[in-house]
Design a protein that fits this description.
Elements (H helix, E strand, L loop, with lengths): L3 E4 L5 H11 L3 H9 L5 H8 L15 H13 L4 E4 L4 H15 L5 E4 L12 H9 L4 E5 L6 H9 L3 E5 L13 E3 L15 H15 L5 H4 L2 H10 L6 H16 L3 H9 L9 H17 L4 H8 L3 H36 L8 E4 L8 H12 L3 E7 L2 E7 L6 H7 L4 E6 L3 E7 L3 H15 L8 E4 L1 E2 L7 H8 L13 E15 L3 E7 L6 E5 L6 H6 L4 E13 L2 E13 L4
Length: 572
Amino acid sequence: MPYRWVYSEPSRAEYANNLQQELKIPAEIAQLLSLRGINNYEQAKSFFRPEKKSLHDPFLMKDMEKAACRLSDAIRNHHKVVIYGDYDVDGTTAVSIMYTFLQRFGLDVDYYIPHRFKEGYGINPDGIKYSIEKNADLIVSVDCGITAIEEARYAKEQGLDLIICDHHNVGDQLPDALAVLDPKRHDCNYPFDGLSGAGVGFKLVQATTQKLGLPESVANQFLDLVAISIASDIVPIVDENRILMRMGLELINTSPRTGLRALLNKINLPIGNITTSSIVFSIGPRINAAGRMGDATSAVELMITNDETEAVRYANELDSINSTRKDTDTETMTQAMDMIDREFNLDNLSAMVLHNPEWHLGVIGIVASRLVDAHYRPAIMLSTVDGKIKGSARSIKGFNIYDALKECEDLLEQFGGHEFAAGLTMDICNLEEFRSRINRIAHDILTDNDFTPEIEIDSDLELSKIDVKFWKLLTQFEPFGPGNSRPVFVSRDVCVEGVPTIVGNGHLKMKVKQNGSPVFDAIGFNMHHYEPHLRNCRHDKVDLAYVLEENFWNGRRTIQMRLKDIHIEQRN
């Protein structure tokens, strides 16, 4: 699929020039800083050297005083506490943080995570009944609860105190709970509203340790789990999250908890080299797999255990579940692509709405994302559960899928989400009208140009400038993620050295150089279709869009280019 290369521009170019001179850094590095809103020496210092002293005071969050006092009271008086969480990575890490924190004080603590398919997301009456049966005095919800209006009322009627820790958008009404912690509350003046669900739970742990007069190390032992939540939940890695992420990665790479160490050993990730990408592509999916396939219990048990034998067992279990999940992904993707080929003419469709009553609810969101990648138009994957159609939607730049579903509200029983991702439930009799209306809405909003994906380019770069100094400066931009993406460079008139090859499962591998520069390894994942064109134009030059990364192989570290796109043009 061809890409449009769109160059990012700093708001004021003179800031980049000033940074280059003041910091004595390459122009390309100054450009990267300026694009991130860093315009002077002090801002650059804070960016390159994020420090824990810059973490925000947890008591700046609305209701934190009430929440920390109640949790401290539960600890001092050994109250029974139930932690209520979500089944994804953010939710299970948040549950693990709060559970382990309270357990260290000898509390009778339990946790409840709803079954993805039997109960669905969020606080429900069954979870409250479970807490009552366990004689709980207090429920602490993490990564959920901000919309639990009726459930909070029910808990209060039953004499249960409820503390809500959430980070999702707030509706017109707040639940009537003892405390509602959510930096997105309209009446909350907390300086940063981009925390993960586990991040909000961590701030409650921070505040409670202060109330108890304990050292900050008691809270900081959970930063590894906070880092996993930040990377996996795709929250912006800026401001406080950038500090938490750095501290968490350091903890993972020096002294990971028992369960995490077992998982790293299982998947052959060497401790000391764990990055944000390691979490996103290897650790997070395995923790997430349990909840995706139904029951997230094994993910929590992995993270809270101190027993090495148990840890190995849960690591093996999660890896096995993830293998099953991947097989289900692949099968569903194949079926979806076949359905598109048989039943749809994408030239006449602005959005893809696919339904198969047998598709697994736990993977259709992943497959919808892959369909968007393959065909670059909104995709909605639907299955049937207990006579109702349920599904996941994913979208592209320029089409707000949540707003589109809002226009179909009369056809839906439930829906929720945001600009690029959403979930929905409807009666089967509304399927065809829904499909027709979504396509009409997409057709009215999207233009032909919108169906060509973009790659945002940070800067042009001559390969000869990539040296040890440049690489060391670039690594200080880590950890990468939303709000601080790995920089994308373009190098033009690049020569392909030798013969390009295909490695692994359809990956392009080649060597390149430019104007007498050193030779660099370049790899393009799933870019095998470029190989014959590159063979045919070996004596011509190409333009490459890529990111730089470190490659570890046989104990040797090298800088390699991970290709994003290739523009091939025959030159006379």
